[in-house]
Each structure stands twice: as structure tokens, then as C-alpha cells.
Design a protein that fits this description.
- This protein has helices spanning about 35-50, 60-65, 110-125, 140-150, 170-180, 190-195, 210-220; strands spanning about 1-10, 10-20, 20-30, 75-80, 90, 100-105, 130-135, 155-160, 180-185, 205-210.
- It is α/β, with parallel strands linked by helices and about 230 residues long.
- Helix 3 runs parallel beside helix 4.
- The longest helix is centred in the first third of the chain and has 19 residues, at about 35-50.
- The chain is elongated.
- About 40% of the residues are buried.
């Protein structure tokens, strides 16, 4: 079990009981409630293996391992500011805070994962306006994902990533409209991000979601390493 949980855009602080030992002040540098659930699963595996005397372990190793976890393209949160219209976001690599507009990149590509991401963002940014940019593989359930998105916003920017697997923007736009969303179609991710930047100056969460391919392109556009996603 975990306790003393504090969620923030920069990660999650918590304490955990593992195989009878309480480990305090753990810091998981992955934001979002669902990421903590993933970590709880890993800790449960350690506890079970320890119970069977199958592993040697210590609290320092767990603390270090959790603290060094990195998962690009899974609720990657970056603050941003705009440049000239028609140019891409200038993304600041410093820590994201609650009171500024942010770019969020996530490779979720099924309804359950999309909902987990959106629930986490509502929890982290309850006072922000949500803008969604999405592109979806042709072999995924785009309608189901868009129906989930419709529960959190009334508009979406649709695009395509650079692969024959991606649904065409006009096809995705038609599906989104049937889900009751106001749609802005764009031909590529850079155009979609520029469209999002040109919107209201209110505090916003600009979420790029729908495909690991799309997440990889978004990471590359802001100058971050997307090599870990190229296998997809």
C-alpha cells in the first residue's frame, strides 16, 4: 500500500510499505495517478518476490530506481510560450507549474488509456482550458477515443502523423463531428500545434494524444529525444 501521496505536474511523492518495511519520501518523476498505479504494481512484485526469498533488495535501491524512472511520451509535460504565428511552439524545458499553460504529450491509443490521461490532467490542472490535438492509427477505435474526449472538451484539432497507418485528417474529422465535437482539421502536427498556439491566451493544457507515432513526432518537434518511440 501507498500513503502520504502528493500529485504534481513534476511527479508524485509518496510513502510505501514493501514486504513489511515502510519507505518514506519516495519521488516518482512521472506525473499522473495512473503512473503511481503502475509503480504500485512494480512494488507489489518486489514484495511477492521478497516473500518467496527470490530476491535480495534494500530500500535505497528502490528509492533510487523509482527516482530515476523516465518514460518519454507518457504524460510528458512542458511549459510553453508562443512565437510568431505559423512557427512552432517554443517549449521551455524547465519544470511545469500549476499556473501556466502547458504542452502535454502522451501516446495513449485506446479509450481506457485516454481516459486515464484526461483524468490525471483534470486533477493536475483543474482551472485550465483543455485543447486536444489528436491523430489516430487506422486500426484503432477512433470513435471510442473521441467519445471519451467529448466528456472533457467540446472541441478537438485533428491531424495525421507521417505514416500510412494514420487516419486521414478528413476521415478523423468526420468521426469527431459525429461524436459532437467542434473540429479543426490540419494536415500535419506542426500545423495543429500552431493552430493551438493561436487560440485564447487563457491558461491552457494543449494535449497531443492518440498514437505513439504522434507522440514521437511531438517530442521531435520540441527538440527532445524520441528514439525510444521509433520501434512503434
Amino acid at each position: 500500500p501507498v500513503s502520504e501521496v502528493v500529485f504534481s505536474p513534476n511527479g508524485t511523492a509518496f510513502s510505501a510499505r514493501v514486504a513489511g518495511r515502510v519507505i518514506r519520501d519516495l519521488v516518482l518523476p512521472l506525473p499522473g495517478r495512473f503512473q503511481l498505479e503502475n509503480c504500485r504494481t512494480a512494488l507489489a512484485v518486489i514484495a511477492e518476490l521478497a516473500h518467496r526469498n527470490a530476491i535480495d533488495w534494500d530500500t535505497d535501491a528502490i528509492r533510487s530506481g523509482i527516482g530515476q524512472v523516465r518514460w518519454p511520451g507518457r504524460l510528458t509535460i512542458r511549459p510553453f510560450s508562443t512565437m510568431k504565428l505559423g512557427r512552432i511552439l517554443r517549449v521551455d524545458g524547465s519544470d511545469a507549474q500549476h499556473d501556466e499553460s502547458v504542452l502535454v504529450i502522451d501516446g495513449a491509443h485506446n479509450p481506457r488509456a485516454v481516459r486515464a490521461v484526461l483524468n490525471s490532467l483534470v486533477e493536475l490542472y483543474p482551472d485550465h482550458v483543455l485543447d486536444i490535438i489528436t491523430a489516430v492509427p487506422a486500426n484503432k477505435d477512433a470513435q471510442a477515443m473521441l467519445q471519451v474526449m467529448r466528456e472533457y472538451t467540446d472541441r478537438v484539432i485533428v491531424t495525421a502523423y507521417h505514416s500510412s497507418r494514420s487516419l486521414l485528417p478528413e476521415v478523423l474529422a468526420g468521426i469527431a463531428e459525429r461524436c459532437g465535437l467542434v473540429v479543426t482539421p490540419t494536415e500535419c502536427l506542426e500545423a495543429a500545434m500552431s493552430a493551438a498556439v493561436s487560440g485564447s491566451g487563457r491558461r491552457r493544457v494543449v494535449l497531443v494524444i492518440g498514437s505513439l507515432y504522434l507522440a514521437g513526432e511531438a517530442l521531435a518537434l520540441i527538440g527532445e529525444d524520441a528514439a525510444c518511440l521509433t520501434i512503434y
